[in-house]
Write a structure and sequence with these properties.
By secondary structure, the protein is mostly helical. Helix content is 50%, strand content 0%. It contains five helices and no strands.
Length: 143
């Protein structure tokens, strides 16, 4: 994996994923993102699409309240569709798998400071993707 920084699209694999999204028809982009998230969640053993899952999660988080825009230098150049809310849960689950995979991307960092920065980015993404708590009580019991 060629990595030049710690951002979600700062590696060759994620940049290739951005290119694939740009080349896809607009209506196919959501399916590409959903597919990489589901395959990452369901994977057993080595997570072959971890970098793409992180990039997909960043695209979804960018549409959430508190989300940061994706770096357009390496991310997709074409606009993404508005993603359905169920992708937030899938993105969070995929990131949890990536974070927990000791043999995956976490093991690729030579500089411990880069690893800490990358881990902080994933933590921020997960915080944005987490669904907000309900604002009203679901049940009101009185005894």
């Amino acid at each position: 994996m060629g990595t030049w920084d710690t951002g979600p699209f700062d590696n060759d694999t994620a940049a290739d994923f951005a290119n694939a999204l740009d080349e896809a028809e607009p209506e196919a982009r959501e399916a590409l993102i959903r597919g990489v998230l589901v395959r990452t969640i369901d994977a057993s053993g080595y997570l072959t699409e971890a970098e793409e899952a992180v990039a997909a999660a960043a695209l979804i988080a960018a549409q959430c309240p508190g989300g940061e825009p994706v770096d357009m230098s390496y991310g997709p150049e074409k606009p993404m569709p508005v993603f359905p809310s169920d992708l937030r849960v899938l993105a969070d689950e995929a990131l949890a798998r990536v974070v927990d995979d000791e043999d995956g991307p976490a093991s690729n960092w030579v500089d411990p400071e880069d690893w800490k920065q990358w881990r902080a980015i994933l933590t921020r993404l997960r915080a944005v993707l987490a669904p907000p708590p309900p604002s009203i009580a679901l049940f009101d019991f009185q005894l």
